[in-house]
Design goal:
The complex is a heterodimer. Chain A is an alpha+beta fold. Helices cover about 65% and strands about 10% of the residues of chain A. The chains are: A alpha+beta, B mainly beta. Chain B: It comes from Colwellia psychrerythraea (Vibrio psychroerythus).
Chain lengths: ~775, ~350
């Protein structure tokens, strides 16, 4: 029955091949049009695990405390200090430009030039104060001297002005929606404006402009992602050369590449039709689809050429190849798809999107490379070049390799593999969850964005790596000594945790203000026990400070961390949990977490939690598919065991190269397994037929090599080359993904041609020898 | 000598109701200070010598630290987490520390272990200084004219109300209130007096300094006080007699006054700063230092006739200091600061 079904499809397809071709052309035209409509799409919420408990806290209070969506612009003067007319003109220009960019919350634009930047000083009969930059300010020597004095009195060195007076800051928060149009804010457009209208305009001579913030980071990532087009062209070119070397025929080179490109077009078109955009994170998927497509295309032309060489007409050779490859190719592609679909189990929008993008792409390959390609091949007039498949006949190479399937060498191979596995397993335990490097993890440390980040964190007492612990309590809680002193104790205990540089909360501000109300006498730097005094000490702290909501029932303690490395985050999170347990009560609840590091902590936890189930699912799927297609436990074992060894080695590689398990590297593990299984399936599908025919393992493997060996080698190389162009990406995560995928593809191939036969030698031992 | 001698009317106010109240509600639970790595690097408010070879510093969260070299600090066992503002050691063993919530702590082992002698959070007032003339008789002063006295080494402390620091109008007003309503009277006197910021022993006399230019002297260990005529309306935080016998007093907004031992005239010394000045410290040579907010450090080499500025780069508030083994050891809002001031 099964065979008749495959047969019927086959017969139907090839009988109506013109019609089939027409259908493909029409569909391709449609999807091509759709694909041109695709937009680059990046949003903050997609990157975070929205259902994680930390993120629920974050989302609940985002309206009050803003998210992490701020913009910091540091204007610096390389000639010593900021006190010159040129600098102040530039700073004023940047301030005004930022103020008028639609989507910037104008109330919260803060710099030396904002009217709410004031100084207060204690005098004998109370306070005196005014704006730091007086209304009648002139950038003359006298005027600048006054401003300098006011800056010192205002206590804004380290926040608005750099510690060494070499820079001054303009800060702003972004709104969710563009107030002019009422539409969702286009982050990339803001990033563009910041680059064009702020940096380009004011950066000249000795004045430099340094911009950081989520919007700018995304803009830079999108900019870097555009370089992908070049890599894509490069990948196509190298792949074409590879396929040509294999096929010695331009026609046979063009066809699989064309079919793979059709798969990419269909994928993009379908994404666009479904309303998805292309995220910088998943922009690599088209590469992957292309590479997978080519690798299966190579299997197809390999088969067709062999069959033509054995005397069939191109048409019937194509038909026969379709029949031969539909099952192993289909199984392999299905397992790829399933591998990608397991990623849906991870509750992070961007990974889900990647799962959908990739599985659509791979599903398309089933149509384009297992159906369209043989149909196209059947039209061609393939001349059997004597050189084609030459390698296949080079029995010297193949017979040497076939030796892997005899017990002697197999023993050595398995021993080495076992040692590698044990070492890899042991070393792989050191794998860290999360980002291991400073700066924005998506970008290289040497990128302008990260350099700007380093400059700002270096020159100001500002850290971009902060986490807010949200304290949920009753209305007006900030007017009660008990609540405030509990927050104060919590903050103090957190400040003592290694990795926490400093902390701020309404409680700590209240202490400083209280000292201010008492002549600036540091002995009054306490939370006032007297309620009226306490109210006085917090009355002037606006809710826009981000330290309290309108009725102060919610107050964050903001922890500034040394960095956002996984170890640091874990230490702090654990300390927060322990202290929250100790100090928390019904009335005063300490909730994790907001701020950029809070988001990272949640993401790390989500990634860590997802790791095991994802591996179980992807291996479960691979095992199930192997069992179905080979109907043999032994066969399943020889395919899956090498795969597992390679996964373990990949963890070792990550540990050795300091690549953390993150939103971008976690999917790679699933992809690597899903795609890595292809080689084993192709080799074993021939082998198991031969074994059933009664050949021993050595001979069966030799036959498999002759039939599929060169194609498998080419496949591994094509895939590896396709992804290795990412090494040159401007984006750090693409480089990491590129390294890992290249490793997975190459080493899985080696495992399939070396470890798989060695395992087989022991799993099908006596039977083979008996027959001989 | 134009000293105005005021009436020394002292009211002993019974404190028993206050003690009774403190046993109730959340205030009763005293939380011991926890050992914290940053204790010596966070807000400390006073530093004093213990004998010749040890130092003690006190600060926020009930931190008390002892050291024998000024670099390595060991945290003492303290039964409360209140912010401590001042510490005094009579000899190598006996010491007292005071702070917010009118807390008075006592140590009998050179500062390693402390016991509570007084804790009155319901008063909602801090104490700012403590001084003992022997192991039995001591006096602690603080905000809103608080004075506590002990005659038994601190086992019992009695509150005193020093009416002589009231303005004439206020005396009249208080008498009226007292005649009408005793409770209202007690409410009024709770916050009517100026802050007492410091006690300075000077031979057999005691100086008291405080808010609104308050400067007074007592020859009977604080039973009666003679106020100096006001010559400044801001607060004073530190007073000291120089080696040559002249008196220096420092206070708000960079104000320093000097009184020649031969005359009672207070002359203002120009300092060219508006920083609040917290403490006067003598080096073992001729130098006199004045420590101030925002890293201000003033130096005099002429017995306080003139000062020059030596502001500290980090701008941290220098709150108190001692001269110890050739270095200035100061406490600040970032804890202990060892300042090398080699000439």
């Amino acid at each position: 029955m099964k065979i008749s079904l495959a047969n019927r499809i086959e017969v139907g397809l090839f009988r109506h091949k013109i019609l089939v071709l027409m259908l493909f052309i029409i569909t391709s035209a449609f999807f091509l049009f759709q694909a041109t409509q695709i937009r680059l799409d990046a949003s903050f919420t997609k990157n975070i695990p929205l259902n994680h408990s930390y993120m629920k806290t974050y989302l609940k209070h985002r309206a009050n405390f803003g998210g992490a969506n701020n913009i910091l612009i540091s204007v610096c003067d390389s000639d010593g200090d900021i006190f010159n007319a040129d600098f102040f003109n530039a700073l004023k220009g940047v301030h005004d430009k930022l103020f008028f960019i639609p989507g910037v919350d104008r109330i919260q634009v803060k710099s030396l030039f904002s009217p709410n930047t004031r100084f207060v000083e204690v005098v004998e009969d109370g306070f005196a104060g005014g704006p730091v930059i007086p209304a009648d300010f002139q950038p003359t020597e006298a005027g600048l001297a006054i401003v300098k004095g006011n800056i010192e009195k205002a206590g804004i060195v380290g926040s608005i002005v750099a510690d060494d007076y070499s820079c001054a800051m303009v800060k702003a928060a972004l709104l969710e929606f563009n107030p002019d149009t009422g539409e969702k804010l286009d982050t990339l457009e803001i990033a563009e404006k910041l680059e064009q209208e702020v940096r380009q305009e004011y950066e000249h001579n000795n004045i430099s402009v340094h911009i950081i913030g989520f919007a700018k980071m995304v803009g830079d990532v999108a900019e870097g992602a555009k370089g992908v087009v070049l890599f894509f062209a490069l990948a196509i070119a190298i792949t074409a050369v590879m396929v040509y070397i294999f096929s010695h025929s331009i026609r046979l080179t063009i066809l699989p590449i064309l079919c793979s490109l059709v798969a990419v077009v269909w994928q993009m078109g379908m994404l666009s039709s479904l309303g998805f955009g292309l995220d910088p994170m998943s922009i690599l998927i088209p590469f992957l689809v292309f590479a997978i497509g080519v690798s299966h295309g190579v299997q197809m032309i390999n088969s067709v050429v062999k069959k033509v060489a054995s005397g069939l007409t191109p048409a019937s050779a194509a038909q026969a190849s379709f029949r031969a490859l539909l099952i192993p190719g289909g199984v392999a592609l299905l397992s790829d798809t399933v591998g990608f679909l397991t990623l849906l189990s991870i509750d992070i929008g961007i990974i889900k999107e990647l799962a959908i993008t990739a599985s659509i792409g791979v599903a398309m390959i089933i149509l384009t490379n297992l159906v369209l390609l043989p149909v196209l091949l059947s039209f061609t007039n393939i001349k059997v070049n004597a050189k084609v498949g030459q390698l296949s006949e080079q029995s010297a190479v193949w017979s040497f390799m076939a030796g892997f399937a005899s017990k002697g060498p197999a023993r050595v191979i398995l021993l080495v593999t076992a040692i590698l596995f044990v070492v890899g397993f042991y070393k792989g335990q050191g794998l860290k969850i999360g980002e291991l490097h400073a700066g924005a993890p998506a970008l290289h440390e040497s990128s302008r964005y990260n350099q700007d980040t380093f400059l700002i964190t270096d020159r100001y007492a500002i850290s971009v790596d902060y986490m807010s612990v949200i304290i949920e309590t009753n209305a007006n809680a900030c007017t009660y000594y008990d609540t405030m002193s509990t927050i104060d104790r919590f903050q103090w205990q957190m400040e003592n945790i290694p990795g926490v540089q400093s902390a701020v909360s309404l409680a700590s501000i209240s202490k400083i203000v209280n000292a201010g109300y008492n002549e600036g006498n540091p002995k009054w730097r306490v939370i006032p026990r007297n309620q009226q005094t306490l109210v006085q000490s917090i009355a002037r702290v606006p809710s826009s400070s981000g330290l309290l909501n309108s009725d102060c029932s919610v107050m964050p303690v903001i922890l500034f961390l040394e960095d956002h490395k996984a170890d640091t985050i874990n230490t702090v999170i654990e300390a927060v949990k322990a202290t929250a347990n100790e100090l928390g009560s019904e009335q005063v609840q300490f909730k994790l977490a907001s701020g950029p590091v809070g988001v990272m902590a949640a993401t790390n936890e989500a990634v860590e939690e997802a790791q095991l189930p994802m591996m179980l699912y992807v291996y479960g799927a691979v095992i199930a598919l192997c069992l179905i297609s080979f109907r043999s436990i032994r066969a399943t074992l020889v395919v899956v065991l090498p795969l597992y060894v390679v996964s373990t080695l990949a963890q070792w590689l990550m540990t050795a190269l300091d690549i953390g398990l993150t939103v971008s590297t976690l999917p790679v593990i699933a992809l690597g397994v899903g795609i890595g299984v292809d080689y084993g399936i192709y080799i074993l599908s021939t082998m198991s037929i031969k074994l059933k025919e009664g050949l021993n393992v050595h001979d069966a493997y030799l036959e498999a090599l002759k039939e599929r060996g060169s194609a498998v080698l080419i496949t591994g190389l094509t895939l590896a080359i396709g992804v290795s162009t990412w090494f040159f990406s401007d984006l750090k995560f693409q480089v990491d993904m590129g390294i890992l995928l290249t490793f997975m593809f190459l080493v899985n191939m080696l495992a399939a041609i070396i470890v798989l036969p060695a395992l087989s030698a022991f799993l099908w031992p006596t039977k083979g020898h008996d027959k001989k | 000598m134009r000293l105005s001698v005021a009436f020394a009317v002292i009211y002993f106010i019974s404190l028993s109701p206050v003690f009774a109240d403190t046993t109730a509600s959340t205030i009763a639970k005293q939380i011991p200070a926890t050992e914290s790595p940053l204790a010596s690097k966070s807000l400390l408010l006073d530093i004093s010598p213990i004998g010749k070879n040890k130092l003690v510093a006190v600060g926020q969260h009930g931190h008390i630290l002892v050291s024998s070299d000024g670099n390595k600090w060991r945290q003492a066992n303290v039964p409360v987490q209140v912010t401590l503002t001042s510490v005094f050691f009579l000899n190598e063993e006996l010491g007292w520390a005071v702070g917010h919530d009118s807390t008075i702590l006592h140590s009998q082992d050179g500062g390693l272990n402390w016991q509570v002698q007084q804790y009155l959070p319901l008063l909602e007032k801090p104490l700012f200084d403590v001084y003992f003339k022997d192991s039995q008789q001591g006096i602690a002063v603080g905000a809103y004219g608080q004075v506590f006295r002990t005659l038994d080494g601190g086992n019992t402390w009695k509150s005193e109300f020093h009416q002589e620091f009231l303005l004439a109008d206020d005396v009249e007003y208080l008498n009226e209130v007292k005649a009408e309503d005793e409770a209202a009277y007690l409410d009024e006197i709770a916050f009517i007096l100026p802050h007492f910021n410091g006690l300075v022993q000077d031979g057999h006399s005691l100086f008291l300094l405080g808010e609104t230019g308050l400067l007074a002297k007592s020859d009977d260990f604080g039973i009666t006080w003679q106020q100096f005529d006001a010559f400044y309306q801001g607060s004073f935080f530190s007073l000291a007699r120089t080696k040559a016998g002249n008196v220096l007093v420092a206070g708000l907004r960079g104000h320093v006054y000097r009184s020649d031992k031969r005359s009672s005239q207070w002359n203002e010394i120009s300092t060219d700063t508006t920083a609040l000045l917290n403490d006067i410290v003598f080096a073992n040579d001729q130098r006199i230092f004045i420590l101030g907010n925002n890293g201000m450090l003033l130096v005099s080499t002429d017995d306080g006739e003139s000062f020059s500025k030596r502001p500290q780069q980090d701008g941290k508030t220098l709150i108190a200091g001692v001269w110890f083994k050739g270095k200035l050891i100061a406490v600040s809002d970032v804890g202990i600061k060892v300042i090398d001031l080699a000439q």
